[in-house]
From TrEMBL:
The protein, known as: 23S rRNA (Guanosine(2251)-2'-O)-methyltransferase RlmB
Native source organism of the sequence: Flectobacillus rivi
Xref: InterPro entries: Alpha/beta_knot_MTases, Ribosomal_eL30-like_sf, rRNA_MeTrfase_TrmH, SpoU_MeTrfase, SpoU_subst-bd, tRNA_m1G_MTases_N
Keywords: Methyltransferase, Transferase
Gene: rlmB
Residue ranges constituting the RNA 2-O ribose methyltransferase substrate binding domain according to the UniProt record: 28-99
SUPFAM superfamilies found in the cross-reference section: alpha/beta knot (SSF75217), L30e-like (SSF55315)
PANTHER family the record matches: 23S RRNA (GUANOSINE-2'-O-)-METHYLTRANSFERASE RLMB (PTHR46429:SF1)
Highest taxon above the source species: Bacteria
């Protein structure tokens, strides 16, 4: 029983992210000058892959200034993304524009609404993310919060799986989820960590008040740091022999419990 996303089937050697589809060409920009111009244009970029041997280049400085994650990788990894002349640099362009969390929170309160936010801690499967976003939009979630590093790329595949929900649902990208949790708590929002590691179940948690829900990663759930920081920890009751739910399914269970509670007021 778990709120945390786990692979269904043997953990080794199978892993979700090893079977991710090749990115669509419209999701990437490659070549030093092309990536530089994309950075200068202000377009949202999820991450940049740079060949290890390139050392210090202008792309790295631009990425640092804009807070864009950069991974130094072997040439072989770049070649798996595209066989074209990438010159050792590939940028993954986001299909959306990220929102600022403080603006989102302020806007919710200004409208007189009760915040319902979703924090995804290192959920990396693109299709799971798209499905989560679809459910989040349908249940009235005000925004999804992702970490800058270790999150699913928001590409055409994610957009398709979300059935367009990502066109309407704000997504915020934060450098530190621990600091984000602290900020939300200071803003009067309780933070609920969804984990199999506790006996308290979902239906004992009051979600009629301002709430942010944390869902954990595919491999190891919510990080210990976030578990300790959360105001409440809760689990989904399980009656079968299988001990876990896919994170997208678990997300739906949790969010619709929040909807049920709020409709009953």
């Amino acid at each position: 029983m778990s709120f945390e996303q786990k692979s269904e089937g043997p953990k080794k050697p199978f892993k979700y992210f090893n079977h991710a589809p090749r990115p669509d060409n419209k999701d990437i920009v490659f070549g030093v000058q092309s990536v530089l111009e994309t950075l200068r244009s202000g377009k949202e970029i999820d991450k940049i892959l740079v060949q290890r041997e390139l050392g210090s280049i202008e792309v790295l400085e631009f990425a640092r200034l804009r807070g864009i994650p950069v991974q130094k990788v072997p040439t072989e990894k770049l070649d798996r993304v595209t066989r074209k002349n990438h010159q050792g640099v590939i940028a993954f362009v986001s299909a959306i524009n990220y929102a600022k969390l403080d603006n989102v929170v302020a806007g919710i309160y200004e409208k007189g609404e009760t915040p319902l936010l979703l924090i995804l801690d290192r959920v990396t499967d693109v299709r799971n993310f798209g499905a989560i976003a679809r459910t989040a939009e349908c249940t009235g979630v005000h925004a999804i919060v992702l970490p800058t590093k270790g999150a699913a790329q928001i590409n055409a595949d994610a957009m398709k799986t979300s059935s367009g929900a990502l066109n309407f649902l704000p997504v915020c990208r934060e450098e530190s989820l621990a600091q984000t949790v602290k900020y939300l708590q200071e803003s009067g929002i309780q933070v609920v960590g969804c984990t199999e590691k506790v006996s308290k179940n979902l239906y004992e948690v009051d979600m009629t008040i301002p709430t942010a829900i944390i869902m954990g990663s595919e491999e190891d759930g919510i990080s210990d740091e976030l578990l300790k920081a959360a105001d409440e920890l809760a689990s989904i009751p399980m009656a079968g022999r299988v001990g876990s739910l896919n994170v997208s399914v678990a997300n739906g269970v949790v969010l619709y419990e929040a909807v049920r509670q709020r409709l009953s007021l």
